[in-house]
Amino acid sequence: MISRRESFGVLGVSGAFLAQLDSSAKQGGAAAAQSPLAPAFAGKHEVVPLPFDAKALKGLSEKLLVSHHDNNYAGAVKNLNKVELELSKTNADTPAFVVGGLQQSALQFANSMVLHELYFANLGGDGLGSDGKSSAALGDLLASSYGSLARWEELFRATGMSLGGGSGWVTLAYELSSNAISIVWSGNHTQHRAASVPLLVMDMYEHAYQMDYGAGAAKYVEAFFANLHWGEVNRRLERAQKAAAALRG
């Protein structure tokens, strides 16, 4: 059964606080209609549709994928919008604990939104390195960094399994300052390697697999790898390398 915490795709936010945000957002909506909000507080993030046919993935059911998208991901987007509207009403007199709580929630919801969008976008393919042409650059980089592509895959899977039965993310990150790549473990939505770009994202929250596999996280990881859109991951590498080169001038 999907927990309330997971259904919002975020840790550490109480139901009472969310209810308060919902009520306040309605009041803030009337004020926003009279005075346009600055972009940072506009609360206009939109839910991105699934980038693949939910019926077509191997080992991941349509029911699971649609629930994951419509509840966990979309819930994070909607709640981020609510939090931004609440932040628009803060000022120098707002109690520090209120500002801090809202900022923490904004970070959690924003990261949940972005990570879910990256996660869904790197699914819908035929598996690891299935497109030999598009996977060559990243495959070579992984092999040179970890000794072999198989060794990298072993470590990425093992990191995922370390989160099995719990919650968090595993990402393959490209570090802009060093041009290195790293497997990054995250126990929640607020942990990531600084100054790095996610290339591959695997959701290890139970809501990503419980409906299909119960506590069988290993079977989910297998299905994840079977559906990798490797070409998308390689395109992210190309963009990250260009950004790193621009930073170096």
Spatial order of the strands forming the largest sheet: 2-1-3
- Euclidean distance between termini CA atoms: 51 Å
Count of helical segments?
A: 9
Overall pLDDT score: 86
Major sheet summary line = 3 strands, antiparallel
Shape, per Cα inertia axes? globular
What gyration radius follows from the Cα positions, in whole Å?
A: 19 Å
Order of helices and strands: HHHHHHEEEHHH
β-sheet strand percentage: 5-15%
Number of domains: 2
Q: Are there runs of 5+ residues with pLDDT below 50, and where?
A: 1-19, 27-34
Helical residue percent? 55-70%
Instruction: Give the number of DSSP strands.
Output: 3
Structural class: mainly alpha
Explain what this protein looks like in three dimensions:
The chain folds into two domains: 118 residues; 117 residues, 3-Layer(bab) Sandwich (minor pseudopilin epsh fold). Helices cover 55% and strands 8% of the residues. It has nine helices and three strands, in the order ααααααβββααα. A three-stranded antiparallel beta sheet has the order 2-1-3. A hairpin with a 5-residue loop joins strand 1 and strand 2. The radius of gyration is 19 Å and the shape is globular. The termini are far apart. The N terminus is likely disordered.
Brief overview, please?
The chain has nine helices and three strands.
List the helices and strands and how they pair.
Layout (H helix, E strand, L loop, with lengths): L3 H4 L7 H20 L27 H26 L8 H26 L10 H15 L2 H14 L6 E7 L5 E6 L9 E8 L6 H4 L3 H10 L3 H19 L1
Antiparallel strand pairs: 1-2, 1-3
Helix pairs in contact: 2-3, 3-4, 5-6, 5-9
